[in-house]
Amino acid sequence: MRESGPFIHLFKTSLGYYVYDVNTGQVLKIDKGVYDYLKNAGREVDELSLEKVNLLKKEGFLKSNRVKITEHPYTLLLPDALQTRVCNLILQVTQNCNLRCEYCIYSGNYDTRKHSNNRMSFEIAKKSIDFLIEHSKKRHKIYIGFYGGEPLLEFSLIKKCIEYIEKVAVGKEIGYVMTTNATLFTDEIIDYIVKHKFKLTISVDGPREIHNRSRIFANREEGSYDIMIKNVEKIHLKYPKYYQECVKFNTVVLTDDGFSCLENYFRGDELFADAYFSSSTVSTAYSKKDKKVNYEIGDKFIQEQQYELFKLFLGKLEKLDLKYTSVLLNGYFSYLKRLETSRGQNGRMALPEKWHRGGPCIPGVTRMFVTTEGKILPCERVCEIADISHIGDVEKGIDINKAQNILNIEKFTEDKCHECWAYSECTTCLQCCDSNADTIRPNILKRCKQVKNTLEDALKDNAVLSELGYDFESDSMIGNPERILDEELYDV
């Protein structure tokens, strides 16, 4: 059997050559000679480069270790965690909505779910809350989120849930979360969510002409922008401190409009200039074959997005006032920061023989999504009608075996995963799978190229920023930029 070479990924930027060492999770700056030596698997012998490679090995890098057995390290801990550490309950209070956004997962263009008149009864909500309280004994803070459809269609139910949880969650800190289209706010609702310090995510797709193209009312051919923006302005004016601390926005980017028109709008409006945004393009996952959901990302969009990213990096490097930089890209920058800081903290020198790739969260523990009917799913983003997604219900509780199966989703693709350089930083989970059990493996593998491309771009961005003196831990420039690999290691 051929001996495996070092488990690494090579990349280069305008500032130099790098190796991502999979076993340690570290990025090392190397010279061109070492880069070429590693790229050619040592076939072209350069004595100086060989000496430097051997020095790296002596320092603990360039190991060939691969994971041999798929088992998530939390597998044996999951039963106890589901008994005592559940912390985040999300209630699907309704499957209905007062809007009919054409790209919505409930629009009927997807295989996963559709709008309906189903609404959660207080009995199911109460049992869900009881489950949360009973299974969160080792959690001081718990969260309850309200999800739809449009959750504010069931505002009376939300109030009853909060009254109940505040009565039974003795000694616990409670956080409230909601995503809304912001068209149903009244003074009463606004005062109520501010009083209870809801973490609020409001959906806004851009200026009026763009927002109204997709986000139209269900009962009339009319866009929702004017009502939404009026309500956002009301919160901003009446409760500025709450607005700054608790309100963020989500934008579905319609790529045919380009990136700059959205960016210019959000950056130029005082409502959004200092806000936190998460953004995404339209998902084509689960789309029905006879109802094509097609939002291609064109060259113009990519060029404009990359230009805004360049400006954001200039801002972080203190070469441009941050007020001129993108608000839509702060979600990507948060990803860069998480990637850099988590890699620096893992303290790992080699992959263990038994492990699991990145991607899945702890089902039922990290999040617990309860449908209108009382079924328990690992989160609100998975396919609602897939059997694998149903890990229990509020009557019988969570099926440990099904939860462990989702936790160890790598088993569907372990032959590929164990040889993948993006193993530790993979982001693929059950979310990409549909209702057909036979397509779980191909659906996961379909995302591999995207995951690896995204990770490589992020590693390049982080390497350049670090080289130029940006420190992710302090979110600031440092006086003497540290090289990713100490140059003294090369004094041979």
How would you characterize the overall build of this protein?
- This protein is of the alpha/beta class and 492 residues long.
- The chain has 2 domains: 8-65 and 452-490, no CATH class; 78-342, TIM Barrel.
- The protein contains 16 helices and 17 strands.
- The chain has helices at residues 32-39, 47-58, 78-84, 122-134, 155-168, 187-195, 208-214, 225-238, 240-246, 260-268, 299-316, 330-345, 400-407, 414-417, 440-446, 448-467; strands at residues 8-13, 16-21, 26-30, 69-70, 88-92, 141-147, 173-180, 199-203, 247-253, 277-281, 354-355, 368-370, 375-377, 392-393, 397-398, 470-471, 476-477.
- The strands form 4 sheets. Strands 10-9-8-7-6-5-12-13-14-15 form a 10-stranded mixed sheet. A 3-stranded antiparallel sheet has the order 1-2-3.
- The model is unreliable at 481-492 (pLDDT under 50).
